[in-house]
């Protein structure tokens, strides 16, 4: 079974003020989305889809149709949902990257169409996050690192998906990576790192999902990120501490002299 979900989104020049007029099917909802232009002139549409029905859904394809200020269609582009199977109650992100800068510069609005099918598959929850850390590097890129554990049988191609939100809960960026190693024996853990190059300054929280050929993690494993100013302050404090330590190391120790009477 396939369904199409029209979603009208009006974008203003800053791509931050959004007016939405939507009529969605009962079992699927695009709960959040936003658009932005990267430094290379590519236009990105990031968002999150929720399965509100009673069955697992799969084969998601999200298509964006772009319009100029006069309402004329400029072009279309699409992306697949980052989670292969979306169980009931789960959310998963998508990321459309439109790589035609000349047309991207003319985008004033777009519509989203979601196409999907139902499936009888329901992956067991056998992937578990052990720990996590996040930081923003000197280039302004956000890094999300951690460990994931396989509590089931041996599984392959363990994928970690991050959905990042601003302070209002709007999706501002998404990305994914694979664990190292990609295949996980029973009871073993593997590390992962996701690097997000754009809009790190807007990220106030994020959720993590894990998926393999056989399993998924619990839905919306959520973390609060450290505000950028706090990161800068901590980094500056650490630098000053190192400088003070080095300065102390350069001070010559006082010599003890005995006084003869």
Task: Output the keywords.
single chain, 261 residues, mainly beta, Immunoglobulin-like, 2 domains, disordered N terminus
Report what the structure shows.
This protein is mainly beta. The protein folds into two domains: 117 residues, Immunoglobulin-like (Sandwich), CATH 2.60.40; 103 residues, Immunoglobulin-like (Sandwich). The protein has two helices and 16 strands. The strands form four sheets. Strands 1, 2, 5, 6, 7 and 9 form a six-stranded antiparallel β-sheet that branches. A four-stranded antiparallel β-sheet has the order 13-12-15-16, with no helix packed on it. A hairpin with a 5-residue loop joins strand 3 and strand 4.
**Span from first to last CA?**
105 Å
| Overall strand count | 16
Radius of gyration: 24 Å
Largest sheet: 6 strands, antiparallel
Structural class call reads: mainly beta
CATH class of the largest domain: Mainly Beta
Q: How many helices?
A: 2
Query: How helix-rich are the residues, as a percent range?
Result: 10-25%
Stretches where pLDDT is under 50 for at least 5 consecutive residues are 1-24, 226-261
């Amino acid at each position: 079974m396939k369904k199409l979900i029209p979603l009208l989104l009006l974008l203003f020049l800053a791509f931050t003020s959004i007016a939405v007029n939507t009529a969605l099917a009962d079992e699927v909802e695009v709960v959040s989305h936003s658009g932005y232009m990267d430094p290379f002139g590519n236009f990105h549409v990031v968002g999150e889809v929720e399965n509100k029905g009673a069955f697992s859904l799969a084969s998601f394809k999200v298509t964006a149709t772009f319009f100029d200020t006069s309402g004329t269609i400029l072009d279309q582009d699409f992306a697949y949902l980052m989670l292969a199977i979306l169980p009931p109650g789960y959310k998963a992100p998508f990321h459309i990257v439109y790589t035609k800068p000349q047309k991207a510069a003319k985008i004033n609005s777009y519509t989203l169409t979601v196409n999907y099918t139902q499936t009888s598959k329901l992956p067991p929850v056998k992937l578990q996050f052990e720990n996590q850390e996040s930081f923003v590097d000197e280039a302004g890129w956000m890094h999300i690192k951690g460990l994931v554990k396989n509590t089931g049988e041996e599984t392959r191609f363990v994928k970690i998906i991050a959905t990042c939100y601003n302070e209002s809960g709007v999706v501002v960026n998404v990305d994914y990576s694979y664990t190292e190693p990609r295949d996980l024996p029973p009871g073993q853990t593997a590390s992962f790192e996701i690097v997000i190059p754009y809009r790190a300054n807007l990220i106030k929280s994020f959720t993590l999902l894990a998926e393999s050929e056989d399993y998924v993690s619990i839905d919306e494993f959520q973390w609060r990120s450290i505000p950028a100013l706090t990161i800068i302050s901590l980094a500056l404090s650490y630098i000053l501490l190192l400088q003070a330590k080095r300065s102390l190391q350069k001070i010559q120790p006082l010599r003890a002299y005995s006084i003869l009477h």
